[in-house]
Design brief:
4 strands, alpha/beta
Length: about 100
């Protein structure tokens, strides 16, 4: 049973993440989702979230992590061909295995 009631997705501004978000929603079908872009993310957006998933690289992950007071965060490197992703080495296919 999925205990993640609310999941926040934070994405790098210039990325087209529609298909990725759809895939994530199929992995967590019972969760409520909210999505914010990197430039619009504020501390209040992350309150009451059971999980934060960042889509982008290390910068997106670090910004969300700095604003997060309490909770879980997963960073997904959605551009592994052009970004090393030292903090976001997780790929979308690996999320399915969680």
């Amino acid at each position: 049973m999925n205990s993640l009631k609310k999941i926040i997705i934070v994405s790098k501004d210039e990325l087209d993440v529609i298909d990725i978000v759809k895939k994530i929603k199929t992995i967590f079908p019972d969760s409520k989702f909210e999505q914010f872009s990197f430039s619009n993310l504020e501390k209040d957006h992350l309150k009451e979230a059971d999980l934060i998933i960042t889509l982008g690289g290390d910068g997106t992950f670090v910004k969300a992590a700095c604003l997060l007071e309490i909770g879980e965060i997963i960073g997904v490197n959605v551009e592994p061909h052009s970004s090393e992703g030292a903090l976001t080495s997780l790929t979308l296919s690996e999320i399915e295995q969680l």
